[in-house]
Structures are given as C-alpha cells and as structure tokens.
Amino acid sequence: MKSSWASVVKKDNPPSTQTSGTRAAAAVAAVAPVAHRDDIFTLKTKTTKTTKGRISPVAPAEPISEKQQSTATAASTASTATAASTATAATAVTPILYQCITPSANSRPSHKTLIRPGAPTVAPIFKNDSEKKEWDNKEYEENCKYSNEIHHQEMEKWSAENRWRAVPNMTSMTKEEEAAGFYKVYKSYITLDQERRIVERCPGFVPPSDYGYLVPWNSTQKPDTFWDFMGTLLYNRADELCRCRTVEDFEKVYNEAAQLQWLDWKWKILQEFPAKDALWTMSTKANMWPNMMSSSVSRMARPKDDMPPPPPPKYKVYGVNRGETGICSVKDIKTLGKKAPIRWHVSPTYLKNMKRFQFVYEENPNAAMYFDSDDDCFYERRPVFSDDD
Predict the structure, then answer these.
(1) Model-level pTM greater than 0.70?
(2) How much of the chain exceeds pLDDT 90, in percent?
C-alpha cells in the first residue's frame, strides 16, 4: 500500500509532548505575521530566544519624556501638512494639464496608418527571412503612401472649411525688400535632398522658404513653430485682426486660431506663446515684422534742425539701415492691460499678400566671441586697426 506524503512526514516526525515553554512560543508565532508563498518582500519579525523551554523576557521600552513627545507630535503635524499641500497642488495642476491636451471641435484631423484597398490579405511563402523582411517593408511603404494621400485630402478639406491654409513661400525679392533686410538663404545640397524626400512622402509638407529677414539679435527669441503660426494667422485672419481695437479683441482672435494650429493649444497660449508676447513681436518697438507700405530706408522720426537727435532704438538691425518697422503699435499696455488700444500700420490686403520667409537673428555686435560656421567653432572678436594707426 502506497503511503502519502503527509503520512510519511507524520511517521518521521512523531508529535512530541508540549511543555508550557513550547506552547508560549507557538502562541507568539501565531500572533506574528505570516509570510505568504508569493510575497516578494517578507517582513522579518523579532523573535525571542528560548532557553530550556523558557522565553527570555523582552526589555521594557524606555519612558518618553514630554519634550520628546511634543517634538514627535510637531514633526507628525508638519509631515501631514506637507502631504496635504502636495496633494492639493497635484489636484489643482492635474486637471489643467489634462485639459491642455484635449482637442477642440475644430482641431485638425490626425494622421492614421491605413491599409490600402487591394492589399494582400494572406502573405506568400518565403524562402528566407530576408525575403519576408523585404516584402513587409514594401507593403508598409505602400500603405504609408496611401495613408499620406488620404490625410492630405482630409487636411485640404479641413483647411478650406476653417479658412486655415498654408502661407505660400517667398520666391523672389525686390530691391526695396533687400534694402529692408531680406536676403537669399543658403541651403546645402543635403538640406535640399532632405526636403525633397519629405515632400515625396508627405504631399502637404511645405519646405522652409529660401529667403530670410534680419531681426535684432536682442529681440524676442522664438522657435520656428511660433513664426509659422504667426504667419498663418496674419495670412488667414487679416480682416479680423485689423478690426481689433484693443488687446482683448486680439486675444480672442489669437486664441481661436491657436485651436486650429495645436492640439495642446491651451498649454501653448498659457505657457509658451501667450497673446501678449505675440502682440509684442508685431509692434514697431520689437522691430521684427516687415512693413513695406512706407519707406523702407528709415522709419524713425526725423528731428528738426534745432532739436537734438533721438536716442538710438533699443532693438536695432545693424545689417541694414531700416529704422523701426512693425505691423502695429500698442499704447500703454502695462497700465491699461487688455483695454490698451491697438493701432494698425498695415491694411488687410497687405497681410493677405505677405509671403512666408525665415526669421534670421543677427549676431551680437558687442559680443567678445563670434561663431564661425565654416570652422564650426567660436573665435575671439579682436579690434580692427586701420593703416593710419
């Protein structure tokens, strides 16, 4: 007769007589927490050693003084308050971040990878892994090409419905524009090849313009994402912008356009690109946007003969002598706030005829170091001496 595992254990380890000491140890072990089989971390309990069936007594804890008790109570209260404040801050910040990534009703359609009609539903039998990989890559490229075409069609429909089309690139330059600060941007053959490849994959992609515009080195530094949005705003919302009379009116048009440009538009207008910063770049004091409706040589007020010359502008372009240019002027925005009046120096027709160009920041003429793009390093700027010295 086969014996079970439990019966073998009972035969090998017969029950022994329990004394009072062993019963006490068993009671202590029963009270201690039990370590489960699947526990990763096991709590080590402090057990007492038995000597001849007796349990050694545990030393009693030292009494806590009133000073130590008050210190512990204060520390516990401080940690509780810190945890509560942290939880409150997290509760206040989390909804804002969540709302910032919520798309609006007019958000641009998202790109989706689709399977083209007529694609094979069953893969053929391959001779080796390289042949299978080549077939998978070819199918993926064909599906991506079809997905890009569908996305381009959806974007064309969405742009027409929301009046949010891409700004055409600047393809030529007049002498007046060259005197105002425009110039031809050099593009290497590597850059041109990359742009060509992107246009082949994405039909709706518009490469950067071949022309740039000089802006002051100490003016507002913004990425190309911001300048593309501002150009699209001026091109598609020219009539609405020129009807704005106050900063509050401009913020309304600006925020509505931001919903079309970015998915996280709330975060953009609150943290990265507020409407006031955009309005500052358009002002004549910033000297960043071109204004070809007036003289392009100098737009500073010429003083009379009996008056001292005005101080030089803070944001000056040293490459050309164009003075201060801009699209609008804002009067006393620090005091009036959103009620500050806006004066437009251009017409809606001028904004609609603007072309897309690149903003090129000048180098700091007062810097001790300058960057040499040919050598890809910085050099010390040394004074230039003439032959008469």
Answers:
(1) no
(2) 39
